[in-house]
Amino acid sequence: MSLRLAPFVTLAVTLLAGCVSQAHKPIQLSDGARASVAILETTDIHANVLSFDYYKLKPDDSLGFERTATLIRRARTEFPNTFLFDSGDTIQGSVPADYQALVKPVACEQELAIYQAMDAIGYDGGTIGNHEFNYGLGFLSQVTGTPMNVDGARANRCAGPHFPLVLSNVDSTRDGAPIFKPWAVLTKTIEAYTQDGSKVEVPLKIGIIGFTPPPIMQWDKQNLAGKVTVSGVVEAAQKYLPQLEAQHPDVIVAILHGGLDTAPYTPEMENGGWYLAGVPGIDVLLLGHAHTEFPGPRYAGMKDVDARRGFVRNVPAVMGGFFGKDLGVIQLVLNRQQGRWVVDLDNTHSEVRPICAQKNQCVPADPGIAPLVQSVHEAAIAYVNTPIGESTLRMSSYFADEGNMTALAAINAAQADYVRSELPRLHPELAQVPVLSSAAAFRTGFGGPDDYTDVASGALTVRSAADLYFYPNTLAAVKIDGSVLKAWLEKSAERFNRIDPTRDGEQTLINDHYPGFNFDQIQGGIRYVIDVSKPAGQRITSLTWHGKPVALTQPFIVVTNNYRASGGGNFPGLDGKNIVLSAPDGTREILVKWLQRHQELSAKDLEPTSWHFAPLKAHGTIVFKGAAGKQDVAQAAGLRHIRQIKDNGDGTATYAIDLSR
């Protein structure tokens, strides 16, 4: 039977600082009572407040917190007893976010736009994702309203969100204390039903504890090294859960900015949710970071995971998508047993509710959100429209996986120019070492048919550079040899499935389990061949530099970003130890300056594509999915062996590629 419960009327927050709330006097509730509470979750919003594409300067109904807010309000009507939490990666990832952090930084008394929107809906708590650290600890301290005892952070309290942010596994090196409160306790009055069906009001105490991915020390080394230390999620849980349990919460919710991985556990594990679920005392698990949905088919078959009902090792769990595209919902049923609430696992389940049930069938935006951020929205548009030059080229990522490097060649050229200028001053002994440059297409359709870079020929603006380089990474350069270069390219080539040329029927070229942002394409005088008929690790069949085979011991400087140079993506030979240059400048800003110096950009300013597929005559058809109606883009880029064979009706199409040509 579905239980209809009354809205909450009381909220108290208990923080580790010793401010223990005066909870309600316990109501003697006999065993057999039942209650139903909906745990709502957002994650990986990435500051996408509005349903708007700042690269194409047009509305995009398929994303945006203003539509998630509609789902939240509807869920609160459906489940009047609700708690709403956020699992991190909240303040970074959109043009307005960069504007408020880098272009015109918010003042101490000004609340960040995304937090204004979240406060308008009302959150009960949240945690900190890895991208929260991208703008530095000073900015994070300020905009979260959290004084931190770390170098460069605020000692005074500025305007922040009106809900507690908890984080248990990041400590200051100054005093060893957590930079955020590791846990909090929230109390709300809910309605429950006694065994005879009578309705009663009772307090429900929910404890929350938060975790961020330990690899932040690699990914944001320039912001964090020497200032903080990070512990594994299991170790942090084991340290702080006893403190939280001493407050006698009815339910403990772990808010993890991380996904699920059953590989052997290490304290550095990026997606430690499976192991966190196994820590005694955790009743509910909220996930994030993976930019996918749980429950969902991606996790079907994983050990001790119910990917249909939403359980991880018998713990109800949810991960609600990204960019405001979804709302995670756990319908939690509680039974009163031996004087305490116990989760009824048989009647509890999780689901992910999308803002768009189908293409062009999206919920309306909450009308109260846009007015809150209108001035920031308009300023961000004006900023990205700042002119910086002209181009005779169309630079797109529609076919970046198939050999069109127009969207990457400008990045590689800008990166290489910067390092060739700066490195001799910093390391004169490396002045004669060849400089290569690596870039990956960040937008290759993962977020839908509009999730591609596409810079038209004509006027170039800051928006063009932001489209070409999506993330606010900083530039880094590493010193490697030919063996590491080959291993780097082999790792990148895992983007492709292995193709059997003797097999009939269709075979899919792209490995959807290997993200496009890890398909690094390297330029700088090298040429290489990828043979997709060979197993992973054996696909680079030719590798030359200026026409000569690359020797295993041949030295190179490779320019990349701070994420990759510090070990992001687990590339062989890249762990932060061989970095020879860490630029203070953001890669996007370096690209803007390079484009300004090339006021009339043309093909002569860019190096041609540095790789191609090994010729392969297949019996069947080799296919891949892309944005519909873009065959002309492939043709214009010289990829005449690509043709659209099916419009899928959802903005995507199936393409065939003839690798024998």
Structure report:
- The protein has 661 residues and is α+β, with helices and mostly antiparallel strands.
- The chain folds into 2 domains: 30-336 and 349-377, Metallo-dependent phosphatases (Purple Acid Phosphatase, chain A, domain 2), CATH 3.60.21.10; 387-500 and 515-609, 5'-Nucleotidase, C-terminal domain (5'-nucleotidase,  domain 2, Alpha-Beta Complex).
- 21% of the residues lie in helices and 28% in strands.
- The chain has 15 helices and 39 strands.
- Strands 1, 8, 9, 11, 12, 13, 14, 15 and 16 form a 9-stranded mixed β-sheet that branches.
- Helix 3 runs antiparallel to helix 9 (370-384) and helix 10 (406-426) packs across helix 14 (587-597).
- The model is unreliable at 1-26 (pLDDT under 50).
